[in-house]
Design a protein that fits this description.
The protein has helices at 40-45, 61-68, 92-103, 137-153, 173-191, 206-209, 232-239, 250-255, 265-281, 283-286, and strands at 28-30, 37-39, 75-77, 109-116, 119-126, 157-161, 196-200, 218-221, 261-262. It has a 7-stranded mixed sheet, sandwiched between helices. It has a two-stranded antiparallel ribbon with strand order 1-2. Helices cover 35% and strands 14% of the residues. It folds into 2 domains: 26-57, no CATH class; 58-284, 2-enoyl-CoA Hydratase, Chain A, domain 1, CATH 3.90.226. The chain is built from 10 helices and 9 strands.
Amino acid sequence: MSAWFHRPKYTIIRNVEKKETKIPEGMWVKCDRCDSIILTKELADNLNVCPKCGLHKRVTAKDRVAMLVDEGTFNIMFEDVQPVDYLNFPQYKDKLEKSKKATGLSESVITGTGKMNGLEVALGVTDFLFMGGSLGSVMGERLTSLCETAISNKLPVIIVSASGGGARMHEGIISLMQMAKISAALSRVSDAGLPFISVMTDPTGGGVTASFAMLGDLNVAEPEALIMFAGPRVIEQTIRQKLPEGFQRSEFLLEHGMIDIITERKDMKNTIHSALSKLMDSKRYSGRKIS
């Protein structure tokens, strides 16, 4: 065999510097329904609605206020009303502190006045992240005071509900009383010739659904929001039957006459403003005197 077939063996060693690419934590988020991977910023820019499947993810009360009220016009009110552990309920104080740290809120509702496309309104927004958005004495007092402020200043009332926690058991009968208290305050708003628009988001349940959430002159909901008194699992376990597809979702309630309109989040501000403009100009409201 020729010599040129017997080449010496050798090994080439290349020193390649490895560079680690670090992806910032929280840069991406996975949609709970369609499993799409979405940039967190893209999701935030789309008002926390999945751009692929349209799932309306839950948002905080602070974000909701920013979506509905003209920038720089919101005047938060009644923050001095704070929860009290009337019953010395086990771990209640700890749960309150945990919720305060997690949300930056002092309670499960934000109330105040602001402008919506230039129209001044009285706005209350509940937050599911604060003990399930549960209805307690503070929510009752703040929303009642909001109604009284609206009457004094001739403002329409808007309450956005994200309360799946129902009446707060940690406050016992004091919590249940708030259902009647807020409902009575809204009745006075109506007597004063002022409109009330209720906006229901995912989830709205329990004592909130059974009282003020369903009392709007216009009841509005986001797409596919769970709106109920008792949850579907509780009902199925009780009646031992499978519930219809979409039961207790916005679309089901609209079909059965429980709500008036379903509006996507991006259209919510303009929809409410348009409705209020018509209601404030109608004989039903403008014909009454504010006492």
